[in-house]
């Protein structure tokens, strides 16, 4: 099928509400009504689809539909929400290869990486279903307080109402599931704005949820630019904004949102410490994967590796040798280790940052070549700590190697950046591992693992500047709901 809507399922009057049919292929364009935005394959540059886009003048229609969705969502029982999410998880699992190929096609992930993302999305939806069933509230022990002996009650977890979810390009399926799953579990309606670069996985996931029984109006997908995003964020009807993306956009959202909840994952610059007692083979293998997975477009990707000076040269040589073995190329080729960056502009911008670091005194050990949107993984040493590559998130296949004199020096260097998501340490000493867990200023500390490990049930978010809220299904669900207390005064019979 070519993605046109059959007469039996005509789109609503505003064309940007139309979703992608689950039967649409990824090799033919998705034909949309109204103003269209092109979706390009990052590797080939070919237009693979077009989606209808909305301007700021569409905000009234969007909110009207979302308000209907809010009423519908709140009326769904917990059993219904859980059943829908479980059914959607099974459908995604059954169609895993089609979802993976869609991710490869629009986001440029390698086939193996895309399959892993689909498996995680299945788990995310299943965890959301479980949360809908279990996290309903608690009994409040009113009679434990003097003067309240004749009272008893409880609190429930009630939906916030309408949640705006804004997602990036790098995990176009699972990061959408991380916002939709807990929001639906909590009985909310969602206005979803996926990345303009990778909307297709989001559209197909929403279609799958509808096929699983979710009423259509519960999730409104809006494709468009910053103007429509700002209008959604500013709307008083929207009670929470859940955003994953860059700091500049996060600051703009905070200024625009007004009095509502904000949950933000704004990126990181992950340090990994390698001590002199570490298993170097394990550390090298894990750090290469952690640095270059998804072409480095990963907010918890390993960026700064702080290596004990006693083993620095051994680690450096092994790390560079392993990096040079990585195959860069077509993401559909299952032999490929590193696919394209999201655009050629992103690859060229990364090369420019690395060139700037080299001009400031850094030494390039390998990589930094650009071919279209392909960027050969770059490894640097002697990087000035004042350089952009050291101070800011690269969000690219670039890693910095840096020797440290002691454990204390490593902790100081790791914590020197103003924001943080994950950090890691490789050591065989339990005392060092536990000391690092206490002293590293990060939302997660991975011990004998690279910084990019994430399990979808764990709390996930940042420390220090820009840290707001947590993802991870239980924690997002609790952010997306609000307690309501019920107290019964019943004097005891005499």
TrEMBL record:
One of its GO terms (molecular function) is lactaldehyde dehydrogenase (NAD+) activity. Keywords: Oxidoreductase. SUPFAM superfamilies: ALDH-like. Pfam families: Aldedh. Residues 38-486 form the Aldehyde dehydrogenase domain. Belongs to the aldehyde dehydrogenase family. This is Aldehyde dehydrogenase.
């Amino acid at each position: 099928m070519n993605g046109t809507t059959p007469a039996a399922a005509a789109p609503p009057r505003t064309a940007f509400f139309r979703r992608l049919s689950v039967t649409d292929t990824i090799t033919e364009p998705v034909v949309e009504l109204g103003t269209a935005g092109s979706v390009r394959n990052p590797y080939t540059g070919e237009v693979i689809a077009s989606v209808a886009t909305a301007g700021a003048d569409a905000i009234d229609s969007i909110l009207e539909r979302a308000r209907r969705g809010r009423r519908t969502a709140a009326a769904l029982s917990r059993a219904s929400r859980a059943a829908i999410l479980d059914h959607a998880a099974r459908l995604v699992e059954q169609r895993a290869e089609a979802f993976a190929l869609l991710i490869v096609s629009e986001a440029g992930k390698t086939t193996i990486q895309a399959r892993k993302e689909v498996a995680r999305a299945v788990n995310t939806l299943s965890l959301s279903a479980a949360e809908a069933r279990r996290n309903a509230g608690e009994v409040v022990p009113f009679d434990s307080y003097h003067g309240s002996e004749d009272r008893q009650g409880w609190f429930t977890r009630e939906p916030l109402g309408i949640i705006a979810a804004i997602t990036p390009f790098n995990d176009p399926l699972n990061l959408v599931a991380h916002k939709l799953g807990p929001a639906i579990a909590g009985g909310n309606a969602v206005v979803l704005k996926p990345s303009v670069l990778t909307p297709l996985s989001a559209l197909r996931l929403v279609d799958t949820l509808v096929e699983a029984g979710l009423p259509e109006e519960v999730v409104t997908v809006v494709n468009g630019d910053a103007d429509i995003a700002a209008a959604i964020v500013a709307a008083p009807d929207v009670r929470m904004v859940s955003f994953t993306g860059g700091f500049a956009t996060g600051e703009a959202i905070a200024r625009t949102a007004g009095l509502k909840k904000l949950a933000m994952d704004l990126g990181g610059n992950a340090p990994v410490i390698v001590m002199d007692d570490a298993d170097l083979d394990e550390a090298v293998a894990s750090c290469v994967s952690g640095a270059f997975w998804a072409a480095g477009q990963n907010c918890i990707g390993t960026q700064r590796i702080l290596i004990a000076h006693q083993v620095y040269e051994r680690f450096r040589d092994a790390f560079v040798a392993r990096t040079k073995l990585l195959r860069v190329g077509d993401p559909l080729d299952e032999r490929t280790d590193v696919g394209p960056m999201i655009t050629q502009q992103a690859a060229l911008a990364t090369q420019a940052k690395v060139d700037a670091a080299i001009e400031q005194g850094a030494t390039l050990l390998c990589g930094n070549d650009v071919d279209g949107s392909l960027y050969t993984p770059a490894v640097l040493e002697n990087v000035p700590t004042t350089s952009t590559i050291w101070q800011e998130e690269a969000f690219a296949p670039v890693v910095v190697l840096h020797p440290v004199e002691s454990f204390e020096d490593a902790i100081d260097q790791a914590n020197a950046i103003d924001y943080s998501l994950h950090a890691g340490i490789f050591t065989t000493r339990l005392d060092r591992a536990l000391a690092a867990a206490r002293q590293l200023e990060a939302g997660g500390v991975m011990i004998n693992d690279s910084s990019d490990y994430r399990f979808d049930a764990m709390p996930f978010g940042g420390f220090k500047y820009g840290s707001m809220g947590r993802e991870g299904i239980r924690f997002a669900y609790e952010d997306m709901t609000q307690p309501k207390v019920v107290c019964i005064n019943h004097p005891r019979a005499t």
